[in-house]
TrEMBL record:
Record-given protein name: Ig-like domain-containing protein
Organism, scientific name: Oryzias javanicus
Tree of life domain: Eukaryota
Keyword Nucleotide-binding tagged: no
InterPro entries in the cross-refs: BTN3A2-like_Ig-C (IPR053896), Ig-like_dom (IPR007110), Ig-like_dom_sf (IPR036179), Ig-like_fold (IPR013783), Ig_V-set (IPR013106), T-cell_Activation_Regulation (IPR051713)
Primary residence: membrane
Membrane topology, as annotated: Single-pass type I membrane protein
Region described as Disordered: 258-281
Keywords, sorted A to Z: Cell membrane, Disulfide bond, Glycoprotein, Immunoglobulin domain, Membrane, Receptor, Signal, Transmembrane, Transmembrane helix
């Protein structure tokens, strides 16, 4: 009984005090979980994930991989360095690292002629650095956002040059299906004009990134500049059109005065009065007259054939 308790105590002491190796893997990348052993004949290697839930990861014995009991979540993503096993390298290569892969991994190794079978543990953590920060402004809000981050990021606002004022700001953090974080924050600008640069800093324990924004004045400020410009442009345009029309009208008048009449006598019954009236619409009226005469003529023909 006492022996059992001592053993139990020692095992617990070993679990509590053991220094697990640590490895940090980048999300989506390939990662190597190191494991070395004293190799011998017929090596056996069992990789398992111990926490948060026990899962079979990769097994090797009788000189080949045995993936019959491999957990579905690791399917097609694991491999050993086959040519290195004989040198005592039982390291596991894991492709397409996911947040769910985080946890403590056990590497059990033994050999036929080795008395010391053993298990070592490696604690694996995942990180996804802040890649890109988006900033935009809608009216009096500056919005800063970024996504695909792990672990949970922290966001803070500052100004350049530093300002003693505090700005109302609100941050929301959301988790995506891949367990990555999306963060966005809005900062409310004061009505006062300023020349400050607004800086948004997003950080995780392993990295930090910042982006800055200079205030753009919102629509009512822009309106004060744009509306008068549009009015001035419109007035100039109107004046130009009037001048051009006047010039064209004068030229046509001069041209009509010189030119002898070319219209056929039978077509200009309607146009006769106007052609002498110096009107720029004369030609149009003449054409209409011709069409109408033509129609009349056909109708008359139709009537006569009837
Ligand atoms: C894995 O082991 C090799 C050789 O001992 C070492 O160079 C490398 O830094 C180790 N990798 C990690 C992530 O600990
Ligand atoms: C095992 O071999 C792989 C591939 O050469 C290497 O990346 C890794 O660091 C090695 N691990 C150890 C513990 O030697
Ligand atoms: C693994 O590392 C994480 C983060 O450093 C730590 O919180 C956790 O307790 C470690 N787990 C083990 C089993 O060492
Ligand atoms: C953002 O809001 C917090 C309180 O919610 C405040 O302590 C902080 O100073 C604000 N940031 C800025 C740049 O004003
Ligand atoms: C932040 O994200 C949430 C969820 O996507 C959205 O509802 C909210 O409008 C966003 N806030 C800003 C300031 O864009």
């Amino acid at each position: 009984m006492n022996k059992f308790f001592i053993l139990f105590f020692l095992i617990n002491l070993w679990i509590l005090t053991r220094e697990d190796a640590e490895v940090s893997c980048q999300f989506g990348q390939t990662c190597v979980l190191n494991c070395s052993f004293m190799t011998g004949r017929d090596p056996v290697i069992h990789w398992s994930q111990e926490t948060p839930r026990r899962k079979e990861v990769h097994s090797y014995y009788e000189n080949q991989d045995h993936l019959e009991n491999q957990d579905q979540s690791f399917k097609g993503r694991t491999s050993l360095f086959r040519d290195q096993i004989s040198r005592g390298n039982a390291s596991l290569q894991l492709n397409g690292v996911m947040v769910q892969d985080e946890g403590s991994y056990g590497c059990y190794t033994s050999s036929y002629n080795e008395i010391a079978a053993g298990e070592t543990f490696i604690n694996m953590t995942v990180y996804a650095p802040v890649q890109k920060i988006n900033m935009r402004q809608t009216e009096n809000l500056i919005i800063c956002s970024s996504d695909g981050i792990y672990p949970e990021p922290h966001l803070s606002w500052s100004t350049s040059p530093p300002s003693s004022r505090t700005f109302q700001n609100q941050t929301t953090v959301q988790k995506t299906e891949e367990l990555l974080y999306h963060i966005n924050s809005s900062l409310t600008l004061s009505d006062r004009e300023d020349e400050l640069e607004y800086i948004c800093t997003i950080s995780t324990p392993s990295d930090q990134r910042r982006a800055s924004w200079r205030r753009r004045y919102d629509s009512h400020v822009i309106a004060w500049i744009v509306i008068p410009l549009v009015v001035i442009a419109a007035v100039i345009g109107l004046v130009v059109i009037l001048v051009v029309s006047l010039v064209v009208w004068r030229r046509r008048r001069a041209w009509r005065g010189q030119k002898p009449s070319h219209t056929k006598p039978d077509l200009n019954r309607n146009s006769e009065e106007t052609s002498s009236g110096e009107n720029s619409e004369t030609s149009t009226i003449t054409i209409y007259g011709a069409i109408w005469n033509h129609v009349d003529h056909e109708e008359q023909q139709a009537v006569t054939t009837l």
